[in-house]
Write a structure and sequence with these properties.
527 residues; alpha+beta; Immunoglobulin-like; Purple Acid Phosphatase, chain A, domain 2; 2 domains; 6-stranded mixed β-sheet; 7 helices; 27 strands; signal; Metallo-depent_PP-like; Phospholipid_Metab_Enz; Alkaline phosphatase
């Protein structure tokens, strides 16, 4: 998103007034507070549990303690935990903000796995806190069971945070009740550049009330401030309940660091004392790795290792190719170069993606992009943030990398590619076809957009004709930054039938309405 919050950071006293009642109601420790180190206490996992990057035989389990503790995970085929299997996890300490992830391997395919996390005093393993419970399904070993998952993005953006008056992030509870196999979070998982104020008066006179924490009262710059932004969403009971039941595949976009950022950028923003965006990005990536279970990221307590882009294999029906369209991009510009440069993916990631698509035997290859392809997303008056720049002619700038990828998919006859994204804060379906395009050396494909999940809504973006998009469906507000009290939040559903192999996409609005549905046939290079 190119839009930035319009409100100024509130005074500290007003922040604390707005925080106390809401935080108490959530029955969680004060966000950002120093961990209690009393020897008489027992470790507490008040922030819930979550799982990530679950495959047929593996998965990651995450927890946060309120003090130093040893993480212990037990898994079982039943909720009774008879014949439980034990996994000794890491020691949780201040180097990782008391968070930790334990890798589970050798799990049974296509089964419901029950797990519980216990935190033990590192000096006396007999002293343990109350166990926290969760469950997830592993991917199937064969295709008959089918796969169903949800996706969306954009959480706590544009000044709209956790509002206790409307029940917090209600869409999470609605998604949980659909009981998907997993949730694909398509970026903007937090708005580290979007401070919250205790209340906002809406155009119709109603008042929106935010839970506000110290870290959410200014733009994030320090590691602790980024950590506080990732903790913020866990204050919401709907999120914690959802995390305990639904595994997540997560990626990042710009607002995890700062609006529309790119590597090498030096900020001209008075809100920031740290102007080097690369420094901010390293701090954010470390906090991201601490607060989300991601199979290709790890943190040693001194820094972050690994990468965001990866393939998560979900049985014979589905591979999810998680892109990172932020870390390796070139600078935002008018985006009309005749040469490729680093593009939107960088040369190494593009080569990786082509190689992994070649290797995939899955019926469907979902390409999880944190930005859309043919929607024009501006960055100021002259520059552009995403792939497209509004010139409907031959590929230029970042479009050159996408043209190379689409050409590769066609010539290697790679079947079943579908693009999913969020970012633009509305929901839509675009069909791309060479007969409508200036660049014609590709096979037709679909791109589906959903979001926001808990942020402001915005009008639909213009289309760029280079790859021939046809906007088959769109639902978007008519004005900018419409609050979640005025417009429903959006998420998408993908349902792959085990018998026929058909993939059905449903674009959903909060409240249970299916706005649009499209069924795609398996085994085709283009749809």
């Amino acid at each position: 998103m190119s839009q930035t919050p319009q409100s100024s950071p509130p005074a500290r006293r007003s922040v604390l007034r707005g925080t106390v009642a809401a935080s108490a109601a959530l029955a969680l420790p004060a966000v950002g507070a120093a961990p209690a180190l009393a020897l008489s206490g027992r470790p507490r996992a008040a922030w819930g549990v979550q799982t990530g990057d679950v495959t047929a035989t593996s998965g990651l389990v995450w927890v946060r303690s309120d003090r130093p503790a040893r993480m212990i995970v037990e898994t079982s085929a039943t909720g009774s935990f008879r014949r439980a299997r034990r996994w000794d996890g890491p020691l949780l300490g201040p180097g990782t903000d008391f968070t930790g992830t334990t890798a589970l391997r050798g799990l049974p395919a296509g089964r419901q796995v029950h797990y519980r996390v216990t935190l033990a005093d590192p000096d006396d393993y007999r002293r343990t806190g109350e166990a926290v419970y969760g469950t997830f399904r592993t991917a199937p070993a064969n295709r008959r069971r089918g796969v169903r998952f949800l996706w969306s993005g954009d959480i706590a953006g544009q000044g709209w945070g956790i509002n206790p008056d409307i029940g917090g992030y209600r869409a999470y509870e609605e998604m949980r009740r659909l009981d998907p196999d997993f949730f694909l979070c398509s970026g903007d998982t937090v708005y580290a550049d979007g401070p919250l104020v205790p209340s906002v008066t809406l155009p119709d006179g109603r008042v929106w009330r935010n839970v506000v924490t110290q870290e959410k009262s200014k733009v994030a710059e320090t590691l602790d401030e980024y950590r506080g932004n990732f903790r913020y969403n866990l204050l919401d009971e709907n999120v914690r309940r959802f995390n305990a039941q639904v595994p997540t595949i997560v990626q990042w976009d710009d607002h995890e660091v700062r609006n529309n950022w790119y590597p090498g950028q030096i900020l001209d923003d008075a809100r920031y004392t740290e102007k080097d965006v690369d420094v901010l990005a390293r701090r954010s990536m470390r906090a991201f790795a601490e607060y989300f279970p991601v199979s290709t990221l790890s943190t040693s307590g001194h820094g972050t290792e690994g990468r965001m882009h990866r393939v998560v294999r979900h049985g014979p029906l589905l591979d999810v190719f998680v892109l990172d369209m932020r870390t390796y991009r070139d600078a935002n510009s008018p985006n009309r170069r005749a040469d490729e440069g680093e593009g939107i993916l960088g040369a190494a990631q593009l080569a990786w993606l082509k190689r992994e698509l070649d290797r995939s035997n899955a019926v469907w290859k979902v390409i999880a992009a944190d930005m859309p392809l043919g929607l024009v997303v501006p960055d100021g008056s002259a520059n552009f943030e995403a792939v497209a720049q509004g010139d409907p002619g031959a590929p230029l700038g970042r479009e050159l990398q996408i043209a190379e990828l689409l050409r590769h998919i066609k010539h290697r006859r790679i079947t079943g590619t579908v693009w999913l994204t969020a970012d633009v804060h509305y929901t839509s379906a675009q069909h791309y076809a060479p007969e409508r395009a200036a660049f014609k050396d590709f096979a037709p494909f679909w791109e589906f957009v959903s979001g926001p999940l808990a942020a402001g809504g915005f009008p639909a973006n213009a289309l760029d004709g280079t790859f021939g998009p046809d906007r088959v469906f769109v639902r978007a507000p008519q004005r900018a930054n419409v609050s979640p009290m005025e417009s429903p939040q959006y998420f998408g559903e993908v349902d792959i039938d085990g018998d026929s192999g058909e993939l059905t996409v449903r674009l959903r609005a909060e409240g249970g309405t299916v706005l649009f549905a499209k069924t795609l046939q398996p085994g085709r290079v283009g749809q």
